[in-house]
Design goal:
Elements lengths: L8 E5 L2 E4 L2 H12 L3 E2 L5 E6 L3 H10 L10 E7 L2 E10 L4 H7 E2 L2 E2 L9 H11 E3 L4 E4 L6 H14 L3 E3 L4 E4 L4 H8 L18
Antiparallel strand pairs: 1-2, 3-4, 4-6, 5-6, 7-8, 9-10, 10-12, 11-12
Helix pairs in contact: 1-4
InterPro entries: Homing_endonucl, LAGLIDADG_dom
Protein name: Homing endonuclease LAGLIDADG domain-containing protein
Pfam families: LAGLIDADG_2 (PF03161)
Length: about 200
């Protein structure tokens, strides 16, 4: 399987460029597969529940050279009469070319030939994954049809992880792949998110 070419030197105007390091690329791939959103003009918004402030601050530190100045900001959303607090920060408006890779007809997709590294997988899992006590799950409601088949194929071909696509929009890591999955992502799971790992991680 080939590897998708993702631009590492981004350009907003003729003389304005932004350089993405290989580590930042891996982190961003995980973020975009997870909760991050790339706006039409190329700005990336990274936002999580205020309970995950430590995780947001870790991301902000890792991606600092790509961000607008300032610390992550708190915001309150109201949904069906309930108030939800979250914290977010923005990446500079250079990522329009990446939006063309990860979105099709305004919907997020899993790109063909995407290189999914253990770090990228760990970020995606910290964003959208959970350990139920019996199952390792990743929320994949955004990915339907061909995208779901593609991401399962990438997980198996690149990382030897076998999965099941459940009918409720969750990706289930097969029990026989738990140890492989945990060994790959565990080194990258930050302290505040380690509750998402089985205990012991080889369960």
């Amino acid at each position: 399987m080939g590897s998708l070419e993702m631009t590492m030197m981004l350009r907003a105007r003729k003389r304005l460029t932004l350089s993405v390091t290989p580590r930042q690329r891996e982190i961003l791939v995980g973020c975009i597969l997870g909760d991050a959103y790339i706006a039409t003009l190329g700005k990336i918004r990274i936002e999580h529940s205020i309970k995950q402030r430590a995780y947001v601050e870790w991301k902000r530190k890792e991606l600092q050279s790509l961000c607008y100045p300032g610390e992550p900001r708190e915001i309150t959303h109201v949904y069906r009469g309930k108030r939800y607090q979250s914290v977010f920060f923005l990446l500079r408006q250079y990522f329009r070319v990446w939006r063309d890779i990860f979105y099709q007809e305004k919907k997020k997709i899993f790109p063909k030939d995407l290189l999914l590294t253990p770090l990228a997988l760990a970020i995606w899992y910290m964003d959208d994954g959970c350990w139920t006590g019996k199952k390792i799950l990743i929320s994949t409601e955004s990915f339907l049809g061909e995208s779901m088949s593609r991401l399962q194929d990438v997980l198996y071909r690149q990382l030897h992880i076998e999965t099941i696509a459940s009918s409720n929009g969750k990706l289930v890591i097969r029990k026989k792949s738990h140890e492989i999955f945990c060994n790959l992502v565990s080194p990258y799971i930050i302290a505040s998110m380690r509750y998402k790992l089985p205990n012991p991680v080889t369960t």
